Amino acid sequence: MSMPERLLDWRSQRRNLLWAALLVLVVSMLLTLVWLAGRFEVEKLQLQTDRDASDAVSDLRNGLTRNLRALETIIPIGMTSAQWSAQAERLLRDRREWLRIEWRDSQLKLLAGANNPSRPALLTPLGPDHLLPEINLACTQARRAGTASYSPSNYIVSDQGAGVEVVELCLPWSLDGEIRGYLIASYSLSDVLTGMVSTNLYRSQQVSFVEPDGTRLAMVGQIREGKRSFNSQQMLSLPGASLMVRIDSRRMGPDLFPNLLTAAVAALSLALVTVLALLGRDTRRRQKAEHELAEALAFRKAMEDSLVTGLRARDLEGRITYVNPAFCEMVGWPAEALLGQTTPPPYWPPERVTEYGHRQALRLASNAILREGIESVFMRQNGERFPVLIFEAPLIDAQGQQTGWMSAILDISEQRRIEEVSRASQERLQATARLASVGEMASLLSHELNQPLVAISSYATGSHNLLRQFDQVNSLTLREQLSDAVQRIAQQAERAGQVIKSVHDFVRRRAPSREPVSPRDLVDSVLPLVRLQARKLMIDLSLHLPDDLPKIWCDRAMVEQVILNLARNGMQAMGEAGDRQRQRRELSISLGRIQSEGSPACLRVEVADLGGGIDPEVEINLYTPFFTTKEEGMGLGLSLCRTVVEQHGGQLSHRPNQPNGTVFSFTLPYRNGTNDTED
User: Which of 3.40.50, 1.10.287, 1.10.1240, 1.10.10 is the CATH number of 420-510?
Assistant: First the structure.
């Protein structure tokens, strides 16, 4: 046989083998399709049976829930036994699954009962003291849980010799938080299936309650003829008990072969015609995908090379597997000198090798993402140190496995330089601002020292008048009055000094001098000045000062000044004494303690007047410095009050008073959210 003949014979044999392989493939595919179709049909029928079982359980659960709600409507609160029995009988006429309803007291003694009028009296009371063990068990569980509970099923034999499988429902009812009795309903399991399960479910299949070992407790429906049997069981979980619901059915076997064979032949014929076109298209798609992949790789490489952010990849052992040009330029080392490097890499400063090694070991043992970034210091090839910010995350491959760590490194040298320049500028600006506030503090001192100086002048004038009366008045009484006046002058002078010290602390921007102070003492310190102005303006003063309020940690002089300013503003708002005939004039000062959810306890101080209120145009600029509606005012009072209150961690607010006027209030939190004071 010549060479061409042998070549032709080899090609013919190869073609025959290919066709034989194709035939085997087609036959195998057809058989597989037929088997899969039959399997699919069987699984579909089983799935339908499982769905029917789930629907039956759902119907039973809904029906039992409805019955429980109906039973709750006849709770015997305020009922006599006759009234309750009438309602129970009316309820039983609509529910065939209930055999009997009983009313028992808290000791499970029978008080009243009713049998289903449409059923024989299968359950008859055996006496007022008789109690079935199942009822006792269900009521015990209901008392512990505080809700209705079911008992396990039990078989009860009737007087006629037949029997019924029964489940007991015990519903406790309470009054004033104490259990006063129980309502007990006896279910017939067979009637539960008949009345609660949809007739479509047991029309051609059997629905039953079964024991865990398969023993049927009750059933409904008939199984139709069929070659294949299907069953499904699902648990009906009830409070205190559980019932197994089972569905049994038979179905005819599927006759799928002829239809599937025809469809398979047609599909194969179409597949053979289009296989070459599909192969050609797949080839073109593969070439296109390879081209796009190459372009994507080139684009990613160009993007990584153009980044100013350094990129570094390490494997799970800490070896460097990738660096981009930006990172190489950042540290001054070429990529060839960095790839494959382990701990320590050449860009670690020698003095920090131990620290960085320990930190790297901790990072390699964790897979958390550093979203906040880590500040560190790297070393260039020339030995220069520079700060960097490192963001690191796990490196995940296409299979979802971690292969290492990917880091993004930012050189923050320029940022740190800008921050230092900004910090220096800010310090100079603050110094300038403190110098510029000297004029403002001069006005503030004038405003704040006015009241203590007026009080000192008033007490001094009173002392001078007493000295002129020295010969006309009992010397002992006069001496006591002079001593009290001198003491008041000393107190006001000390208060003026405290005001100067507090303002001085404000200018110096350091913490004010704070001490534990009783809230009542704060009001008592400024009360003489308030009473003096109130008598001058013929204003009634109302005080609400509880004695049981804990001390607060505050700058006493500044808080007293806040109370005094608010009281003076309230009295001035009520006008001069000539307006007394127009309205009731009363200034109210009250203290109290408030506690809101999620917030620390606070002291609340309220100053309420009966003036004309605040106009909307004035309210907008009420707390603006140097804004005032008074001819002699400087407009610093309320601005200072708000500043002092906020420095203490509180809030200053206002609201309209009823029937007229305004209420100013501020809060001062207790130290650390408690009445933490030093005795």
Answer: 1.10.287
Averaged pLDDT for residues 333-359: 86
Q: What is the DSSP string of 430-469?
A: HHHHHHHHHHHHHHHHHHHHHHHHHHHHHHHHHHHHHHHT
pLDDT score at 329:
84
Domain 512-679: give its CATH code: 3.30.565.10
Could you give the CA distance from residue 90 to residue 385 in angstroms, rounded to a whole number? 93
Residue 127 pLDDT > 70, yes or no? no
CATH classification code of 32-255: 3.30.450.20
pTM, full prediction: 0.38
Per-domain residue ranges for the chain?
A: 32-255, 307-411, 420-510, 512-679
To 5 degrees, how large is the angle CA 260–CA 264–CA 269?
A: 155
**Residues 583, 16: Cα–Cα separation, whole Å:** 119
Burial class (CB in 10 A: 0-12, 13-18, 19+), 590: middle
Q: Is 220 exposed, middle or buried (0-12, 13-18, 19+ CB in 10 A)?
A: buried
Q: What are phi and psi of 359, to 5 degrees?
A: -65, -40
**Spatial separation of the C-alpha atoms in residues 376 and 136, rounded to whole Å:** 73
